[in-house]
């Protein structure tokens, strides 16, 4: 069966670019592709994490070209693609993972904060796709571009408004380019994660949030995820790597312009939470939860 799936996926020997492929989710993506027999060019702002990922790819016997840079720096990203063009005879897969933000109300954000969020979560993706198309065309067999967005691109995300807007722009840009490049068999799709444990996700929240969780008992810590995620637990990085393998491979040859939500069901739930104390899955807490939270008019 594995031989059949390998032949249908047709990934072995292909070449992939992973922007933000050195640490966290990007490292998981890079390693998943390497294990499938793909050679890689990766770049990341975190030199230490990237060195670890580079060594792991090399240990798997795959060719890897690693570059330390900030994807939001247009000149640095151009230089990276120049190097890819010089080092590899072909390009088949591009994964734009890099991104990030911090929780911040719009009226507290400076113009520099806003410009940073737009460039880091949308602007560089446009540049990466534009540069990648020229290299994908050299292979004359189409290709797959996978852009990471977020669940926040599909809902009102208070405190993350610019980030959510930029990621929504990435999702619609992806759809538009899927139409534009359809006849060339260059497919573009999005992956929209939600809660996945990574350094970037942790950095998005103020320090007091993390400090609050450390004060919780071990019994209490997983309860929020169990209420929020229908699956009951956060998707691991490996689940995102699996989604990339599907969208990068020939198993998804006729999938283009789509967003794949890898979130354990949170997008499907659309605000329905599994409240405790007998309330079950409803958008707002009912009597069981409210009674526990607001005894005598004050939070319990």
TrEMBL record:
Pfam families per the UniProt record, alphabetical: adh_short_C2
Keywords: Oxidoreductase
GO MF entries: oxidoreductase activity
Database matches in InterPro entries: NAD(P)-bd_dom_sf, SDR_fam
SUPFAM superfamilies linked to this entry: NAD(P)-binding Rossmann-fold domains
Keyword Oxidoreductase tagged: yes
Domain of life: Bacteria
Family under the similarity heading: Belongs to the short-chain dehydrogenases/reductases (SDR) family.
Name of the protein this chain belongs to: Oxidoreductase
């Amino acid at each position: 069966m594995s031989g059949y799936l390998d032949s249908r996926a047709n990934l072995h020997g292909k070449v992939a670019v992973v922007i933000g492929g050195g640490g966290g989710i990007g490292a998981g993506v890079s390693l998943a592709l390497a294990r499938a027999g793909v050679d890689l060019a990766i770049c990341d702002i975190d030199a230490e994490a990237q060195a670890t990922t580079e060594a792991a790819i090399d240990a798997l016997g795959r060719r890897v070209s690693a570059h330390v840079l900030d994807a939001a720096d247009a000149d640095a990203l151009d230089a990276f693609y120049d190097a890819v063009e010089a080092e590899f005879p072909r390009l088949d897969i591009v994964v734009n993972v890099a991104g990030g933000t911090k929780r911040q109300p719009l009226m507290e954000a400076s113009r520099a904060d806003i410009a940073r969020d737009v460039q880091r979560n949308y602007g560089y993706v446009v540049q990466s796709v534009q540069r990648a198309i020229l290299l994908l065309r050299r292979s004359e067999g189409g290709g797959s571009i996978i852009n990471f967005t977020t669940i926040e691109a599909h809902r009102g995300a208070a405190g993350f408004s610019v980030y959510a807007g930029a990621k929504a722009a990435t999702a619609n840009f992806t759809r538009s380019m899927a139409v534009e490049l359809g006849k060339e068999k260059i497919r573009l799709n999005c992956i929209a994660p939600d809660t996945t444990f990574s350094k970037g996700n942790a950095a998005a929240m103020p320090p007091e949030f993390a400090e609050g969780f450390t004060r919780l008992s071990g019994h209490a810590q997983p309860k929020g995820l169990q209420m929020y995620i229908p699956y009951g637990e956060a998707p691991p990085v490996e689940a995102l790597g699996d989604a990339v393998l599907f969208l990068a491979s020939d198993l998804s040859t006729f999938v283009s312009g789509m967003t794949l939500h890898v979130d354990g069901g949170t997008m499907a739930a659309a605000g329905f939470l599994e409240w405790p104390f007998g309330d079950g899955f409803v958008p707002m807490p009912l009597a069981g939860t409210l009674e526990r939270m607001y005894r005598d008019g004050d939070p319990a």
